Amino acid sequence: MTDPGTFQRYRFGVFEADVSTGELRKHGVRIKLNAQPFQVLVLLLNRPGEVLTREQIYRELWPDGTFVDSEHGVNSAVNRLRDALGDTASNPRFVETLSRRGYRFVAPVERIDATQALLLSGSNIAADAETDPSVAEPDLTSFAGGGILSSPDDLPKTPYSVVQTLFVLFQLMYIGFYVGALANLPEIEGLLSALPKATSLFTVVIVTAGILIPVRAFLLSAALFHPPRALEKILKIWPFLLPFDELWALSPFLLLHHINFGLALACTALLVYSPFAQRSLVLMGAGDMAVKLAQTRSAQSKSKAESQ
Questions:
Q1: Same domain, 100 and 162
Q2: How many CB atoms lie within 10 A of CB 14?
Q3: Does some domain include residue 302?
């Protein structure tokens, strides 16, 4: 199909296709794309602006003469490619359909040969992962969620230093809530005594604060020290942490001896959104964090090789 030794990668818009690993990324985050749609993409990228007929694509996808409905097979592969790129046949930004002729890639393409790819420090995550699987970039698409929840494609690309700082501040805020509550148990017990099932509510405050302090310590450490697969682990934890965060959104009402009801309600409204903001921060910093991991591993390997 193509000579991988000639062109290792292609860039177009916010996307990058790596021929050597068969991966498509957007803003550095890997997008799920099956082998055949990816083959179609590489074919088009190798000949931008040129028309590829369905017959040419069919011969590349099924070179062994396997009997397949050529029109349906090619159309299906192209449609899946468009879905991954967020493209449409009616208003193409990347893959244009020419009626009864074939397909053409219409966006500008930057080709990166094998030598250039090796010189781009920290960018080839997959190559590092072959020697150290712990460096592999997490596939966040499976944790992106659906419906009203944002996916990595919906969020702006943000410097990791900004994302990291905000995420760390969130964790410190929650730790402050838990420690503050445990340090003022007599006051909280008196406040809850007027409510039904006061003893149960008081127990919930103590138990959840005790459980969540180490959880926040883990999230804080993950943000500061970048352990392998940290992003994936944080996103796995998020659905289980969500109900606790929503429960602790009521924590301003534990301060009613010091603030009025209106201020407590306003703070609670902001805290209800807090877990969703943290999730977005994790997704926004995903690409840069993966690159930083690769750069760190590359520097460590280089240092070790020089010392030997």
A1: no
A2: 13
A3: no
Distance separating alpha carbons of residues 286 and 308, to the nearest angstrom? 33
Q: Residue with structure tokens 């990595």?
A: 152
Q: Is residue 19 part of a domain?
A: yes
User: Which two structure tokens, joined as six digits, stand for 35?
Assistant: 């082998």
pLDDT tens for each residue of the chain, 308 residues long: 444 444 578 999 889 999 888 899 988 888 888 888 999 999 999 889 899 988 888 888 877 666 556 677 888 899 999 999 999 988 999 999 988 889 999 999 988 765 454 444 344 444 444 444 444 444 554 454 555 777 776 778 778 888 889 999 999 999 999 999 999 999 999 999 989 999 999 999 999 999 999 999 999 998 888 777 777 788 889 999 999 999 999 999 999 989 999 999 999 999 999 999 999 988 887 655 544 545 555 555 556 556 65
SS3 label, residue 11: strand
Residue at 53: amino acid letter: T
Bridge-based pairing state of the strands 102-105 and 95-98: antiparallel
Q: Are 171 and 220 in contact (CB under 8 A)?
A: yes
Please tell me whether residues 289 and 148 are part of one structural domain. Answer: yes
Nearest to 40 by CA among 6, 85, 90, 74: 74
Q: What are phi and psi of 11, to 5 degrees?
A: -120, 140
Residue 304 resides in a domain: no
Q: Residue 81 is part of which domain span?
A: 9-118
Residue 201 lies in a domain: yes
**Phi, then psi, of 81 in degrees rounded to 5:** -65, -45
Task: Give the position of tokens 């590829």.
Answer: 52
Residue at which a domain ends, from 86, 118, 150: 118
Kindly report whether the global pTM for this prediction surpasses the value 0.70: no
Q: How many Å apart are CA 250 and CA 64, to the nearest integer?
A: 64
* Overall domain count for the chain: 2
| Coil, helix or strand at residue 30 | strand
Contact 22, 38 (CB under 8 A): yes
Residue 288 to residues 20, 46, 256: CA-CA distances in angstroms?
A: 21, 28, 42
